[in-house]
Amino acid sequence: MDLLPVNFCVLRLCGAWKEREDDGLIVRFISFCYRYAVIALIYYFTISELIELVLARNDVEALTEGLFLAISYITLCFKYFNFLTREHELRALLDCFRAKLCQPRDSAEMSILKQYDRKAKQTACLYMMMCQITGTLMITMPLLTKNERSLPCKTYIPYSVAAFLPYVLTYLQQSATVIYGILLNVSFDSLVYGFIIQACGQIELLCYRFTETIRFLKENNEEKKHQAVDSFAIADCVKHHISVYNITNRIESLFVWTTSTLFFFSLVTLCTSIFQMSKRDLFSPEFFTLLSYLGSMMSEVFIYCWYGNELDLKSKSVAQAIYTSDWTIISVEQRRTLLFVMMMSQRGRILSSYGFCSLILDTFTWIIKTSYSAFNLLQQASH
Question: What DSSP assignment string belongs to 156-174?
Answer without folding.
Answer: --SS---SHHHHHHHHHHH
